[in-house]
Specification:
By secondary structure, the chain is mainly alpha-helical. The protein is built from 6 helices and no strands. Helix 3 packs across helix 4. InterPro entries: DoxX, DoxX-like_oxidoreductase.
Length: 139
């Protein structure tokens, strides 16, 4: 069994990354992405347009990050790349759209930002489509 520099078994780290990917992607999709799809017209009126690109662009960008990228992260496909739009949407939301929020008011957003930044830094782990493709390339 492979040990890391911290003496942890690598499979435990891979399980932790799998858990982060699945739980983070589920929460992002369930709380933010799915409601934007189901209530698209209401969200189009309600969504902020922080860069003046139009509410349609802002909503589609959020849906891309919170639905498409969340799905890619969950299965571990193009994981690090898929984390970037999610991180961008969260940073814009927390620092530009809602700068008045206290940490307590924005804790869900900050926790999602922590989760997806950790995944972007660490990668998807062994239990991912990315890792499966990497193993096939080694053969």
């Amino acid at each position: 069994m492979t040990k890391t520099s911290f003496g942890l078994n690598a499979p435990h780290i891979d399980l932790g990354l799998l858990f982060l990917r699945l739980s983070g992607a589920f929460m992002l999709f369930h709380v933010h992405g799915w409601p934007k799809i189901v209530h698209y017209s209401e969200e189009l009126v309600r969504i902020e347009d922080p860069f003046g690109l139009g509410t349609t662009f802002s909503l589609l960008a959020a849906i891309f990050a919170e639905v498409i990228c969340a799905g890619l992260i969950a299965i571990g496909l193009l994981t690090r790349l898929a984390c970037l739009p999610v991180i961008a949407v969260l940073v814009v939301s927390m620092l530009i759209v809602h700068p008045q929020w206290s940490i307590a008011e924005g804790q869900f957003g900050w926790l999602l930002l922590i989760i997806f930044t950790a995944i972007a830094l660490c990668g998807p782990g062994r239990f991912s489509v990315d890792a499966m493709f990497a193993r096939k390339q080694e053969d």
